[in-house]
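User: Batch of two.

Assistant: Item 1 of 2:
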Amino acid sequence: MPHFSARPLRTLTLLSALVLAPVAQATDVVTSIKPLQLITAALTEGITQPEVLLPAEGSPHHYALKPSDMRKLTDARVVIWVGPGLEQFMVRPLARTNAEIVTLRPDLEAHGHEAVEHSEPHHDTGHDDHDHEVHDGEGAEESHHDHAAGDDPHIWLDPMTGLEIAQQILPVLQQALPEHAAQMQRNYEAFAIALQQKERAIAEQLAPYRDAGFFVFHDAYSGFVEHYGLNQLGYFTVDPARKPGARHLAEIRQQLEAAKAVCVFSEPQFTSAVVDAIISGLPIAQGELDPLARSISPGADGYLNYLQSLSDSFKRCLAKKTD
């Protein structure tokens, strides 16, 4: 019986992998956070997988890039971020890359103790959303600032803004990868149709729960809440890495005792001990929302799946009013 070497089989497998692999390199497109990766991945489906800088356990408010992150930025053709109003950790590193930088919200300015120097090239200084919180030690109070329309840096939580983000980054991606421009246009058109269908389905799903009051842990959801007309009564903290003030928590407890809310939402990254304590002894449901889509896989439907996961979380908790 003739003896066949395994080497040709390995060579064939390697060649097949090369043929089937996307043409573009994985580092062609880098996004700062996972939700932007999800939107970008819908446009680059079948072409390249966008990289994301912020790890699952990280916060865009407080993160320091690692050397491996800097290599991603150095290798990238396109870098996509919201702007200094959210990811201030990106400002100085972006000054050291030759990538085409897409700043989605350069109008959100930051000031105060984390202000960015005006000398940084290519970027406007920005306004960080947690500068609205007042601190004076353990008894720190939080102002009752709510993000006005257009001022919330968590822009991906409004599905129609998600579509605008896709529209904004599409021509930049097409210019960076011109050989895939036609496919990206087709991907965008399919994404737009699917997103509009998903938006209508979610509106129908949440319509019965618009009057149910709730509190969120982190002031991040105004885009989603306002788009679907939900009844958010307040939030525990502006910056999830900071402990809520005692007086602010007491005011939330008073509203909960007055039966103004049926649900309080925590977040997966941060301990729910504060939430558990404040609803103790009250008939209040507890849910969970993730503003950064940590558990969602990127792909053609990744952003749609994320929006659906948010809607499902709201429905599960707000439906308690009918129990």
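Item 2 of 2:
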Amino acid sequence: MMRLKNITLVREKVADWTQYPFNVSAIRNLHELQIHARVIFFVGENGSGKSTLLEAIADNYGFAREGGSRNFHGESTETVRAIEPLTKALRVGFSRRTGQGFYLRAESFFNVATRVDEMAHDLLDGHNAYNAYGGKSLHVRSHGESFFALFENRFSRRGFYVLDEPEAALSPQRQLSFLARLHSLLEGNDEIQFLIATHSPMLLAYPGAQIFSFDDEVIHEISYQETSPYQIVSRFLEWPDVYLRELFSELPLENEDMAN
């Protein structure tokens, strides 16, 4: 059975703790994370290091750095190349590696869709390149539709699936549909596991998931109710007027004309 079991930072392999990404507190303080769930969430504020570690794990597994499967190739951006020292310093333990799965990186999804088009136009194997993506180009759909076409069609096999903020293009209703799809996949296949970085309180609610917070400078496991997205959104929905009044009262006036 294919399962991610642990994530370890081999500290002897870090050449310079003052350089990115090791100067990010949560990364610098990482020793080992023990994994026992089939759905693992990374949660934390922007800049806390969750996407950085997620990218390094995907790179360590062998996924293309811009996203896609292990069969995708392309020129890495400077931002993506910056995680290479972390990739090399990680020991990512699996019960066994199949090499199967997919890495969804929302920031570079356009490039992945373009790569699918290029494969479809290839005279040698283009006849079936769209099969795993709903039968047509991801570019001819809206952003949200293309994301969901990927979930419905490409996420149907055993493997390790790494997703960076999949909610970026999904409406609340689509996020619920994503949860239903996630549950269906997990129920029907023991050989599948998801690692997801998210800000969505809806996705984080998946039952039995293991949640790691990157806040407070140390990666630590927390419950759903302890996550910031859950706490902020639930309190806002309960008292929107109070929140908005406090928020607007703290905003500085841009100039004297606005005060008059």
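The chain has one domain: 4-228.
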